[in-house]
Amino acid sequence: MRILSVFVALLLLGQSAAWAQNTDAVNALCKKISNKLASVSYQECAGLSYDQPRYFSANEQPILETHFSANPEIKDPIRILFIGGIHGDEYSSVSVTFKWLNKLKKHHSGAFDWHFLPLANPDGLLRKRSTRVNANNVDLNRNFIPAQGGLTPLDHWHIHAGKRARYYPGEKPLSEPESQVIHRLIEEYRPTVIVSVHAPHGILDFDGDQQPPERLGPLQLRHLGTYPGSLGNYSWFVKSVPVLTIELPYAGIMPSPKDISHMWVDLVRWVRYKSKPEEQVAEKN
Ligand SMILES: [Zn+2]
After folding, report:
1. Which residue from 61, 135, 156, 187 lies 20 to 30 Å from 278 (Cα-Cα)?
2. Does any domain span residue 17?
3. Is residue 138 assigned to a domain?
4. Phi then psi for 83, rounded to 5 degrees?
5. How far is the CA of 79 from the centre of ligand 1 (A)?
6. Ligand 1 centroid vs 205 CA: distance in angstroms?
7. Which domain holds residue 220?
8. Cα(93) to centroid of ligand 1, in Å?
């Protein structure tokens, strides 16, 4: 019995040590996320190790960043910048990102380098009634620098978006702290590809010149096109970084555990395929 209680005490100590490496602000945010989202437990959020918070939302919530490094012997690894919850009312995009993060925590092979922002718009999610927009009522996915030659996001909003509040792009690109974080990460981290998770269109979209995946689990490829100020438009047409957009089928209903696994396996397979040298890919064709 005594051995058992020592064992349990050690186990608890181990767990609290694993959580303690996150700052109080991070753990407090995890508490709020798990209170808001029935499908994310406190442990699924706080059990991950985050970087010391560097960036904060308009309401001063930390922007969570967690990193899984590639093995150091891999020279110039594939770097994946993974973004969940850029729209605060798309609950499943945050919850599924945490499910995938917990899979990665268990099975990270070191073949690629991953950098995650599981919740890019914490203020939108944590409002009493969650919103697509951030605390300044800006749609972050319209707040990036637009491709040259097109309309500005604000003109596009006036002319083509019926000035609907949900799509308000802000007075000027990168006016918001949350979009500035993504902009900075694109510059600093130099991702090979960006994966961004949304809902509820139930498809995959891709902006880039490589072969996109035909499907991820139940989601099939369908090009939606980009809007001035959207991440896809900015990342590919301004920064030449391809973007895979995952649109889950429902904002408020989780995909089945089987589909969550299936999408992840297909995503990793696609990244692995992309990482092969050209000639090897050609041989396989
Ligand atoms: Zn969205």
Report:
1. 187
2. no
3. yes
4. -125, 120
5. 23
6. 12
7. 23-284
8. 8
Domain count, the chain: 1
If pLDDT is split at 50, 70 and 90, which confidence band does 19 have?
A: very low
The CATH number for 129's domain is 3.40.630.10
183-219 per-position pLDDT tens digit: 999 999 999 999 999 999 999 999 999 899 999 999 9
Q: How far apart are CA 67 and CA 74, in angstroms?
A: 16
Mapping DSSP to helix (H, G, I), strand (E, B) and coil, where does residue 244 land? Answer: strand
CA of 119 to the centre of ligand 1 (A): 12
CA–centroid distance, residue 139 to ligand 1 (Å): 9
Q: How far is the CA of 204 from the centre of ligand 1 (A)?
A: 12
Give the distance (Å) from ligand 1 centre to CA of residue 141: 8
Tell me, in angstroms, the distance from the centre of ligand 1 to residue 86's CA.
Answer: 7
Is 148 among the domain residues?
yes
pTM: 0.90
Longest dimension (CA), the chain: 74
